[in-house]
Design brief:
two-stranded antiparallel ribbon; single chain; 56 residues
Length: 56
């Protein structure tokens, strides 16, 4: 199951370069993860400084 970004997201951008599949994009008011592209690797969740990314 794909990861998702919660409302705790501060739009810091730390997760963007961590995704090897470019599944993360800028949304409003937080970044979003495309579940069709996400491979559930968890790289973004490990990088998030505010723990705003969790398994969906």
């Amino acid at each position: 199951m794909a990861y998702k970004i919660t409302d705790e997201c501060t739009m810091c951008g730390t997760c963007l370069p961590e995704c090897p599949f470019d599944a993360i994009s800028e949304g409003d008011p937080k970044y979003v993860i495309d579940p069709d592209v996400c491979t559930d690797c968890g790289s973004c969740a490990e990088a998030c400084p505010v723990s705003a990314i969790e398994e969906g």
